[in-house]
Specification:
By secondary structure, this protein is of the alpha+beta class. The protein is built from 15 helices and 16 strands. An eight-stranded mixed sheet has the order 1-5-6-11-10-9-7-8. A five-stranded mixed sheet has the order 13-12-14-15-16, with helices on both faces. Strands 2-4-3 form a three-stranded antiparallel sheet. The radius of gyration is 28 Å and the shape is elongated. It binds histidyl-adenosine monophosphate. Histidyl-adenosine monophosphate binds next to strand 6, strand 10, strand 11 and helix 11. The site of histidyl-adenosine monophosphate (HAM) has 27 residues, from strand 6, strand 10, strand 11 and helix 11. Keywords: Aminoacyl-tRNA synthetase, ATP-binding, Cytoplasm, Ligase, Nucleotide-binding, Protein biosynthesis.
Length: about 425
Amino acid sequence: MAYKAPRGTVDILPAQSGKWQELEQLLRTICANYNVKEIRTPIFEHTELFNRAVGDTTDVVSKEMYTFEDRKGRSMTLRPEGTAGIARAYVENKLYGMPEKLQKVYYMGPMFRYERPQNGRQREFHQFGVEMLGVESPYVDVECMLMAVTVVKALGLKNIQLHINTLGDQESRDAYREALQNHFQPVLNELCHDCQVRYEKNPLRILDCKVDKNHPMMKTAPKTIDYLTDNAKAHFEKVCALLDDLEIDYVVDPNLVRGLDYYSHTVFEIISDDPKLGAGSTVGGGGRYNGLVEELGGPQTPGVGFAFGMERLMIALGDDHKDEEGLDVYIMPLGSEAKDLAMQIMTMLRANGFTCDMDQCDRGLKGQFKSADRFHAHFSMIIGDEEVQKEVVNMKCNHTKEQVEVPLENIVEFIENHYEGDHDHE
Ligand code: HAM
């Protein structure tokens, strides 16, 4: 039987991993810039965590989770998103008791959702996310949005829009829930079975139903913004004012409700019109979640965060990535004695911090030069019988094409001197 990777998963091969590392490095640099520290939480958690945090009536929980029983019969789930696990870790490790009240963390890693795979949508995918816990302030909402915008700008993504909306506080959401029920009540029997359940349990979820999305009552549904308490309204107005002050472009999108239950107040999405992704594709999204930590048994703690789909960032980045820092030295031994010596030199060069490799296939010069080329080697080091006898190597600089004989004991000095005079090399 020929094995294939499971549907909706992909291998990231050596030819692509350089571009992934570049993306990860850039994200880590932005996090350092924003004083956000990394957190790493388990890839699987107790299923109940996601039911609680993300919500039973969301598509993510009710249709898309990879859930299994472990050997002791406990229900576990591969994480479909990062926020729930981080809120759990925050409570479990009592991060609310840290001297810094605002805890800012980021994460990168695989997430799992049983969705129909297509361009930019996989069953195993990767998210880069940020969570800021502990302070309820529109300034922190805006810090999150700024960070998300910084990411897309740093990646040079074009045709990007920041969409924002507010779901308000609990009181606003109760009033809105009632308004939605009144709105959909007359057409309830025209909606799909799921929506009829949502109507009772969580009418907000009707708005992101994939089956009923074209029902005429969807377009005329009440907007969250019309049901805000004074407090919720003031919070949102301050968010907008801060974005205006910072000259961050945004669109208030009253239909934006997001697909997870923990949100309150500000929600936002970064939407790309890049044709590579398909028009109107969401590259990232997030929002405030003031009830989540308490829901998971912690003290009342506000939070806000966002996550990007890293595959979507990679697609939007395109293929113009130049892979490879080249090797410093590619060693080309000719014959078995030369090979013994090559192994010694390679070990010594690596110990001195140079990136280095050698031919292990006993090929002729031509084949070895091809490898030196493929590895973008700065130097080719040729060692034949004569060189072994004379205790020298032949160093060919692949940029200047100069070839010099260098005594074994001078190799490191030779490379260092050469680099010092070469302004192209960093
Ligand atoms: P989300 O909107 O469910 O939010 O996912 C965030 C991003 O993950 C999406 O915008 C998309 O780019 C990417 N994504 C989601 N599903 C897939 C998939 N099947 N394949 C590829 N990419 C995908 C969250 O997960 C929240 N935890 C974000 C958040 C953090 N809110 C507050 N803090």
